[in-house]
Amino acid sequence: MEHELWLTRLFNDYLPGIANSILSLAGQPTSPRPWPNYMTMEILVAVIVILLFAILRGSLSIDRPGKLQHLVEVIYDFLRGQTEEAAGQRSFRHIPFFATLFFFILFCNLIGIIPGFESPTMFPAVTLGCAMLSFVFFNWVGVQAQGVGGYLGHFTGGQKFPLSLLMVPIEMVSTLARPLSLTIRLYANMLAGEKVTLVFIGLTYLVAPALFMGLHVFVSFLQAYVFVVLTMMYVGGANAEHSHDGHHAMEPDADGTHRH
Prior knowledge:
By secondary structure, the chain is an all-alpha fold. Helix content is 70%, strand content 2%. It has a two-stranded antiparallel ribbon.
């Protein structure tokens, strides 16, 4: 049994019924202590993100923006630029999803630095959940953009029969491999980073731990960025397919001209 964090202990002491009710609905066996560490950490991160943006919303100002507003605006501008580069301008409407995913993963990565907590992204169940959310979202965007028939048609790779028979399984395997790739990349990097940081904190004092904690912060930002940019690329690919019907239909540029 894994070591219980203090927050997990509180959940298991006072709220086991909620978790067991959910487990029963899912057809899973119940437990006297059903809350795992990664679940309570996810809940804590979600509460922190909600409270942070509730505070930000109440203090928004055009004339005298605060430090938190400046920071969030910088991150938003960065995500907007990455969205345009990776997914195209028609994906701007999905920036709230990208930003939510980025902040949630980032805070999940960073919370392990605080004594008494650990990063939930060290556990494959958490990274798989994020990856499946990304997978469902970009497929939903593709179906919205092209319709079910049009979206399924892109699995032929634009090829005609009989070459399309070869392309369909290749494209399907490529698409289904995306959540697996996202899951393993985030989980493996955060697990390795957390273990290395803990080892050096246990062996040394002050300077070396500070250096490795700085490295952990860098890795946390980098992995959140990589996860979200890959999601942007998948969404951009799914959203752009409807403009390519095998004849490379013309589409308008931002200045109103057309290109092939």
